[in-house]
Amino acid sequence: LLQESGPGVMKPSQTVTVTCAVSGGSITTDSYYWSWIRQSPGKGLEWIGYMRWDGVPFHGPTLRSRTTISRDTAKNQVTLQLGSVTPEDTAVYYCVSVGADGVDSWGKGTLVIISS
Question: Chain centroid to CA 108: how far?
Fold first, then answer.
């Protein structure tokens, strides 16, 4: 089970932190990727990046300059930080687990609104 949590509403230029709490499995499970995907209103899905099972993150090219993906193995959580946000970063942010057989699970998502 993946459960995202986020700040709800943030102001432009701030840094958004979204957390994915994982239960029923470990984020260190071999060959698992813990991905971040978002969907802005009226737009399609946008892949942000992932955290590998071994602790190596990969930040997708579109948001790389503003993105940090990290993890806390003690809490079994993966975190996404997105800096210098603008209203265009308003979206539902999803945590997705991907195993050797493909997509394993989606969280329900957390809505982040960027507004002054």
Answer: 12
